[in-house]
Amino acid sequence: MRLTIGSQTAYFNDAASELDVTPVIINDRTMLPIRFIAESFKFNVDWAETTQTVTITVPAAGENQTISEPTIAPIETLADAPTVYMTADITPESLMKIYDQLDFTPQGNVSIKLSTGEAGNTHYLDPNLIKDLVQSVEGTIVECNTAYGGSRSNTAMHRQVAADHGFTAIADVDIMDADGSIEIPVSDKAENITRDIVGKNYANYDSMIVLSHFKGHAMGGFGGAIKNTSIGVSSSEGKMYIHSGGHSTTSWSGGTQDQFLEAMAEAAQAVYNDRQNNGGIIYINVMNHLSVDCDCDGNPAKPDMHDIGILASYDPVALDQACVDLVYEQKDGDGKSLVERIESRNGLHTLEHAAKIGFGSREYNLVSIDN
């Protein structure tokens, strides 16, 4: 059975039904329509008006038909929502397992887009965690220089940081804008940017695996697959262009916060559309070291939330939404600072805009692979 908060459509196996009331959350408690649930499983439901009492009873033998083995539809057909796979085990073996679950066959030259982390930061993805996956696809780790200064603002320093953090020991590392930029087209639904400015060497690759460390971000609220595919793939000038909401390639300013968030979604969509036609693209988010600050911060806040797991999908919007939802589901103050960071930057607007322009879905089926 599948019910969605705020939706009057419910699914029992693969059959849709309209509810008379919608599931809601009240005071951190999820409230569901009990009659629909009980009767779907062939229980008897009686309502006593005088005592305001609901009574649910197991039917006597033969009273109702025996519930037959359900015919489960392929998960992708459930409400047409994309699948997000999840494992709570953050190990090299589980990373390979969740990658295999996607049944992705990379073509040609394979790029692995990740953040090598700013010097001084220790929360970037551990090379030992990702080594088996990167080497199994003969991938090249790709990055672009930063636009804010710091230890990765030029190619020589960036390569040194990548070496210091252990990435050059497991694979080749390509700073894609070492020799300049190229442009790729954006969707005709984009409202802020007219092109996506990426590192020149982006054109040397076919398939892309977007391997992101999900965490907070000082400007975007959170950083996951969309940020890694937009700002992360953009050259230095492309990063300026996104941050300014499409107003400048030489300055961070010029646009509003929401325009910046929207431009991220539009740039990530440009990469998605391009890779779909050139080798394919998949997305994996690792939810550990959950600081409010990004890997690009050389002095990040200490994580104050427990590790959650690894998630993967073909849909980056669904993937980031699932990660955000898991953060919001945490209890007893765990993750409170990250929620505050997301809300203080209106971070969910990136996902709202992505769905609006047809980039991906904020609805998803979360499927554990730990069984």
Outline of the structure:
By secondary structure, this protein is of the alpha/beta class.
- Please identify, by name, the CATH architecture of the largest domain: 3-Layer(aba) Sandwich
CATH topology of the largest domain: Rossmann fold
Helices, by number, come to 10
**β-strand amount:** 15-25%
Structural class: alpha/beta
What summary fits the major beta sheet? 8 strands, mixed
Contiguous low-pLDDT stretches (5 residues minimum) are 64-79
Instruction: Quickly count the domains.
Output: 2
Helix fraction bin: 25-40%
Strand segment count: 18
- Tell me the Rg in angstroms: 23 Å
Separation, N- and C-terminal Cα atoms: 18 Å
In what order do the strands lie side by side in the largest sheet?
10-9-8-13-16-17-7-18
Q: What does the average pLDDT come to?
A: 90
- CATH top-level class of the largest domain: Alpha Beta
Instruction: Note the run of SSEs as H and E.
Output: EEEEHEEEHEHEHEEEEEEHHHEEHHHE
Shape: elongated
Please give the structural blueprint.
Elements lengths: L8 E4 L2 E4 L5 E3 L2 E3 L2 H7 L3 E5 L4 E5 L25 E5 L4 H10 L8 E4 L13 H10 L3 E4 L11 H10 L8 E3 L5 E4 L11 E4 L7 E7 L1 E3 L3 E3 L1 H6 L5 H8 L13 H20 L4 E7 L21 E5 L2 H13 L7 H9 L3 H9 L8 E4 L3
Parallel strand pairs: 7-18, 8-9, 8-13, 9-10, 13-16
Antiparallel strand pairs: 1-2, 3-4, 5-6, 7-17, 11-12, 14-15, 16-17
General description of the model:
It is a single chain. With 371 residues, this protein is α/β, with parallel strands linked by helices. The chain has 2 domains: 1-73, no CATH class; 75-368, 3-Layer(aba) Sandwich (Rossmann fold), CATH 3.40.50. It has 10 helices and 18 strands. It has helices at 34-40, 92-101, 127-136, 155-164, 225-230, 236-243, 257-276, 316-328, 336-344, 348-356, and strands at residues 9-12, 15-18, 24-26, 29-31, 44-48, 53-57, 83-87, 110-113, 140-143, 173-175, 181-184, 196-199, 207-213, 215-217, 221-223, 281-287, 309-313, 365-368. The strands form 6 sheets. The protein has an 8-stranded mixed beta sheet, with helices on both faces. Strands 1-2 form a two-stranded antiparallel sheet. Strands 3-4 form a two-stranded antiparallel sheet. Helix 2 (92-101) packs across helix 3 and helix 7 (257-276) crosses helix 10 (348-356). The longest helix has 20 residues, at 257-276. The chain is elongated. The two termini are 18 Å apart.
